[in-house]
Amino acid sequence: MRPAPEQAATPEQAAALVVALAHSRGLASAAEIEEQATILLSAFAVEWPDHPVARYFELADDAQIEAFFVALTRELRAVAPASLPFTIELFLN
User: Fold this and answer.
1) Which of 49, 59, 67, 80 could staple 11 via S-S, CB 3.0–4.6 A?
2) How many Å apart are CA 8 and CA 56, to the nearest integer?
3) Total-model pTM
4) pLDDT value at position 91?
């Protein structure tokens, strides 16, 4: 089913999509994902202009863009413990 063009996503849905796109492209760290978020979104919007996430950013004002980045930070914190390996490094002198 194709989404209606007037339907827009929520900031949380947009953040979840960006994290999924980033992981599918091999980006793992939260810093990399935050840094590449706008690039990932613009590439996605070009490919899928009628998607609700693309529509969200087409209509977004400054407050909605900020809400997206807040949601992105929450999403990254939620998935980070499960996706990041835990390593311990010991340095002996």
Assistant:
1) 67
2) 5
3) 0.73
4) 58
Q: Computed from CA positions of residues 58, 61, 64, 70, in that sequence, does the dihedral angle turn out positive or negative?
A: positive
pLDDT, tens digit, 9 for 90 and up, residues 17-54: 999 999 999 988 888 999 999 899 889 999 999 999 99
Looking from the CA of 87 toward its CB, the CA atoms found within 13 Å total 5
Q: How many CB atoms lie within 10 A of CB 70?
A: 13
Interaxial angle between packed helices 52-59 and 62-83, expressed in degrees from 0 to 180 and rounded to the nearest 10: 140
Are the C-beta atoms of 21 and 47 separated by less than 8 Å? no
What is the radius of gyration, based on Cα positions, of the chain?
16
CA nearest 77: which of 13, 34, 25? 34
CA 74, 76, 80, 82 torsion-angle sign = positive
pLDDT at 82: 52
